[in-house]
Amino acid sequence: MYGYDALLDGNLKPWLIEINASPSLTASGKDDYDLKYGLLHDVLNVLDMENRLTGKEKRVGGWDLLWDDGPVLADDGNMECTMNGTSAAVTNSFLGCYNDRHKQLREMYTAAEAVKKT
Questions:
Q1: Pick from 23, 49, 60, 66: most CB atoms within 10 A?
Q2: DSSP of 47-77, one letter per residue?
């Protein structure tokens, strides 16, 4: 896991400041704790050390999945982005979208268990 520090200029152009090989996971407040806890939770789900995933998932946690040097897309080539629970756009990335991590993981694990039982 790497930490990327970026700065957005007045035209919203991102500038890479630095890349940290060992980013700090020490929280400085509640929001920082929630962010870092969610990050670690998602990293462990992507690693799938409990072997819960089937390999056919379109999304794991808040991550855009990549496979063979390209994005994993929904069957129709798009993924629905929601903000505040309402559909905002159809996109190929979940960046900036609302992420109901717990709901998404419950659905994913339920589907994976159903596939493994068949």
A1: 60
A2: HTTT----S--SEETTEEPEETTEE---TTS
User: 8: helix, coil or strand?
Assistant: strand
> Which residues form the domain of 110?
48-117
Q: How far apart are CA 99 and CA 12, in angstroms?
A: 23
Q: Is residue 91 part of a domain?
A: yes
50-103 per-position pLDDT tens digit = 888 887 776 776 666 666 666 666 555 555 665 555 555 555 566 666 667 777
Angle at 15 between CA 12 and CA 19, to 5 degrees: 140
Residue 67: burial class (beta carbons within 10 Å; 0-12, 13-18, 19+):
exposed
Tokens of 101: 């991590």
Q: How confident is the model at residue 47 (pLDDT cuts 50, 70, 90)?
A: confident
Separation CA 3–CA 53 (nearest Å) = 26
